[in-house]
């Protein structure tokens, strides 16, 4: 099996809702484990996600967790998640779902480098970059 690189996003108590939302956007299989599942949270915070993973038929893997109980949380950090490819319909569908309920920083439109691109922050505070590769002549 080749090595893979995938985003691992930290949330502040809403990792389950975020991963379920991303499953609606991208499809795929979702597995969720709570701190309580591993015996690390019988009290408050035991239902928070310790590890979640979404794997899709498109080859996407997105992992996420809630920050551990009692730790500080910094929303968004300094990372964005980029999705790109050539399937205009698929990528525009991802864009519509990700930007819905969030905010658009760069509208989905043709850019100076020739591709169609948009940037948004979803309702969970995660920044997404969607790029539709255009044929080069």
TrEMBL record:
Name assigned to this protein: VOC family protein
Alphabetical list of InterPro entries matching this protein: Glyas_Bleomycin-R_OHBP_Dase, Glyas_Fos-R_dOase_dom, PhnB-like
Annotated Glyoxalase/fosfomycin resistance/dioxygenase domain residues: 8-128
Highest taxon above the source species: Bacteria
Alphabetized Pfam families for the sequence: Glyoxalase
Transmembrane segments: none
């Amino acid at each position: 099996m080749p090595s893979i690189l995938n985003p691992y996003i930290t949330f502040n108590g809403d990792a389950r809702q975020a991963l379920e939302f991303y499953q609606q956007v991208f499809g795929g299989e979702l597995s969720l484990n709570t701190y309580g599942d591993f015996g690390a949270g019988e009290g408050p915070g035991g239902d928070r996600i310790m590890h979640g993973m979404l794997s899709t038929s498109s080859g996407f893997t997105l992992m996420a967790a809630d920050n551990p109980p009692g730790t500080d949380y910094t929303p968004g950090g300094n990372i964005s998640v980029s999705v790109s490819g050539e399937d205009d319909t698929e990528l525009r569908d991802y864009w519509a779902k990700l930007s819905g309920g969030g905010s658009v920083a760069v509208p989905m439109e043709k850019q100076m480098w020739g591709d169609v691109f948009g940037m948004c922050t979803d309702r969970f505070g995660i920044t997404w970059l969607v790029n539709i590769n255009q044929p080069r002549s």
